[in-house]
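// run 5 | inverse folding | seed 20
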């Protein structure tokens, strides 16, 4: 579904990805594992078009994302949950969820909202609350909901369990577990595997922007 082939990416003249390769097959949950600064976020931002390729190729199925403008990528069915959540503080929870839907003409807003609230019913109760009034954990949930709303083919979840209370971490694990068998391809970046190893079909380890190992989990 997503293919990153020998990607080289630089930030401010510092090469962060150095020939990194990853393949996310349809319907699988894959963990992208690496220490802080290893290149996990850079890989996801490259898929979303936030960072340009110096070399290599990024594809979604048969679509060359390198030839697709960044503002058109969400509409291809890619949902992205950044580590810093990236919510618009003055918008409500529901407005934040709807942001990518408003620019994805092929998706029915009401239908996608019903899907999201079916998976995360706790957000329905706070849908009119502004994002700036949410706790950090609630903001994580809203960011996940926004990714789910538009991610009809692929979800990119950047450190979803980082910095949240154990109970919320467990809840996020349950939500991700519900996606198994849905046909979605899910890439989860993490510094460790404490939260999700049992969920994953494969692990890809990245260090200093390059592959270390790749294989099926036990």
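// decoded
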């Amino acid at each position: 579904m997503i293919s990153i082939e020998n990607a080289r990416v630089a930030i401010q003249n510092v090469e962060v990805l150095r020939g990194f390769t990853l393949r996310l097959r349809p319907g699988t949950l894959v963990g992208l594992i690496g220490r802080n600064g290893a290149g996990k976020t850079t890989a996801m931002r490259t898929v979303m078009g936030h960072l340009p390729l110096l070399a290599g190729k990024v594809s979604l199925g048969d679509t060359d994302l390198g030839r697709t403008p960044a503002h058109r990528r969400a509409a291809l069915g890619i949902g992205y949950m950044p580590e810093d959540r990236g919510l618009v503080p003055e918008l409500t929870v529901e407005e934040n969820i709807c942001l990518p839907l408003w620019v994805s003409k092929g998706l029915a807003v009401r239908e996608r909202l019903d899907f999201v609230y079916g998976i995360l019913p706790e957000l329905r109760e706070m849908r009119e609350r502004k994002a700036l009034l949410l706790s950090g954990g609630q903001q994580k949930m809203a960011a996940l909901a926004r990714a789910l709303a538009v991610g009809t083919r692929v979800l990119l979840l950047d450190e979803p369990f980082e910095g949240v209370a154990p109970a919320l971490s467990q809840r996020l694990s349950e939500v991700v577990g519900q996606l198994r068998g849905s046909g979605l391809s899910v890439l989860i970046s993490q510094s460790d595997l404490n939260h999700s190893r049992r969920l994953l079909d494969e692990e890809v380890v990245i260090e200093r922007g390059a592959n270390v190992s790749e294989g099926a989990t036990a």
